[in-house]
Amino acid sequence: MHRIAHRAFAIAACAVLVTALAACGGDGAGPDRAAVPGVTDTEILVGTHMPLTGPASAGYSKIAPATKAYFDHVNANGGVYGRKINYKIMDDGYNPATTQQVVRELVLQDKVFAILNGLGTPPHSGVLDFLNTSRVPDLFVASGSRAWNAPDRYPYTFGFNTDYTVEGKILATYVRNNLAGQKVCFFGQDDDFGQDSLAGVEQVLGATAVAVKQTYVTSNTNVAPQIGELKAGGCQVVVLATVPGFTALSIGTAARIGFAPTWLVSGVGGDYTTLAAQLGDAKGLLEGMLGVNYLPSAAATDDPWTTLFRKINDERNGGAAFDGNIVYGMSVGYLFVQALLAAGEDLTRQGLIDAIERGGFKGPGLAPLRFAKDNHSGYGGMRMIKVEQGKQDYFGPTYETDSGGGPVNEYPEAPPAPPANGIPSV
């Protein structure tokens, strides 16, 4: 009889314990908000890894501070459902080993709610499994790799950039329509960035149409051998899948050996202000450079989004030199606030994922956002840009396509005007 009573007591105690654990909720699904990592009644703690130093720091080091400046603007106007966004920025130097270290610190020690806009294909690839196994929202990765669009394998990861294959298709469509008959070549980063971009170019032009293909690694800044091969191959048009530092290196090296093709540059490596700062007195080499983008032009004087971001930059980012990296960082911040609002006041990690998969977000982008339960890819198109008389701006229509064999079509819808106070509403 004593054993039966003791067993009944143990069962009852276990039931109480299970109920208590369920109320806490491993992911904050229960009523106790304190159980949601990084979320309190007054704060949302978010982290990122960025190359504040290292081979990819040129331009890119400005992105996260711009995002933080946008969050400071939102915080000064009441935050999101009364919570202020605290953005912790960790420098990984574009080194995948360092990325793993700082991301684990953010998740395991700082207990951030989400990782936002971690930058780079090689660095971020190494933390995909960790973040998804840990069920940490891995949002709006700063890279156009198609790896971020794998909802079955990585349900917590979402892209932001137009993917590199879509980008390559749009650049190649311009070549086909405007530079027909010229010898086309390719120089790209030796990873998914370069491979995906080349795949897009070849989808449109054909694999045999790219006469010379060269690659680089970010640990070696001597690109003279590769540029020499492009010149020796008689290349007249060169598509660059390069980060800004290597775009500048490529164009500068080419000039030193008397090689002056038409350059078509990936959107992630073609910001004029960043490249001009790298090239200094040789910035005239950028004249005529072609590229693509999908966010408001930093040079525009009549775009309301550029006006908004410039104002926030002046007020909350120390007046940093305004360029496309700042537009990018603030655009990421705007989308993240939209997602938080869509997730609702009772914020959980899964609730945020569900809100993003419902889609429907509109903001600064010229192309559509493709978020859905079966699509985590981010923006789905781009528009051509050109440097003329020291100014980089758009021309022609915006195009949209997919990373498969779909056609490249014009996208006619213009982005909406920003809210009067620069902050999205529910």
> CA-to-CA gap between the ends?
61 Å
For the sheet with most strands, the description reads:
8 strands, mixed
Beta-strand segment tally: 13
The residue fraction in helices comes out at: 25-40%
Radius of gyration: 23 Å
Question: Low-confidence spans: pLDDT under 50, at least 5 residues?
Answer: 1-33
Content-based structural category: alpha/beta
Keywords for this structure?
disordered N terminus, Peripla_BP_I, signal, alpha/beta, Leu-bd, ABC transporter substrate-binding protein, 17% strand
Provide a descriptive summary of the structure in words.
- The protein is an alpha/beta fold.
- Residues 1-33 have low confidence and may be disordered.
- The longest helix is centred in the first third of the chain and has 23 residues, at 2-24.
- Helix content is 39%, strand content 17%.
- Residues 397-426 are annotated as: Disordered.
- Belongs to the leucine-binding protein family.
- Residues 44-390 form the Leucine-binding protein domain.
- Residues 413-426 have a biased composition (Pro residues).
In short:
The protein is an alpha/beta fold and 426 residues long. Helix content is 39%, strand content 17%. Strands 7-6-8-9-10-11-12-13 form an eight-stranded mixed β-sheet, with helices on both faces. It has a five-stranded parallel β-sheet with strand order 2-1-3-4-5, sandwiched between helices.
Summarize the SSE layout with pairings:
Blueprint: H1 2-24, E1 43-50, H2 57-60, H3 63-76, E2 84-91, H4 96-109, E3 114-116, H5 121-125, H6 128-133, E4 138-141, E5 157-159, H7 164-178, E6 184-189, H8 192-205, E7 210-216, H9 224-232, E8 237-241, H10 244-256, E9 262-265, H11 272-279, E10 290-293, H12 304-316, H13 324-343, H14 349-358, E11 381-388, E12 391-400, E13 409-410
